[in-house]
Amino acid sequence: xxxxxxxxxxxxxxxxxxxxxxxxxxxxxxxxxxxxxxxxxxxxxxxxxxxxxxxxxxxxxxxxxxxxxxxxxxxxxxxxxxxxxxxxxxxxxxxxxxxxxxxxxxxxxxxxxxxxxxxxxxxxxxxxxxxxxxxxxxxxxxxxxxxxxxxxxxxxxxxxxxxxxxxxxxxxxxxxxxx
Length: 179
Description:
This protein has helices at residues 38-50, 77-88, 106-109, 117-125, 143-167, and strands at 54-59, 64-67, 102-105, 128-133. By secondary structure, it is α/β, with parallel strands linked by helices.
């Protein structure tokens, strides 16, 4: 009977910095325990299975490109910020402009959030995970008006991360034991 904000239900930093609520009736309710929701468990399993170098999560609304953490700066803030700024230089906002998104760690770019998906991807697997807040118009933008234009614009982000993954320098190996 409680609606859980799934993006506050992830294990890393769950309930740690007043960026979610333990109150069932609050819109930022984090759930009864870290990873308690089936959707969260599915994403946790995906992250564990694929060990992606990059991950991308979409939310509305505003025009933000954000990365970990929701409560503090990440250890690799400079590198993560450079990737986000590179994306900002090519990603069109709702007005058709580049370099217009607010960029930074979630906690300083928009507000404090604990138990977020990108934080868990980064903390557990080293994944450079980014959240793009799309649509400057509203939390639930008009589907007929924004669907095609948003998908077309966000293809730029998908291609950006695919190019960085497929064409970038890589190191591969396999650990067979702790020694």
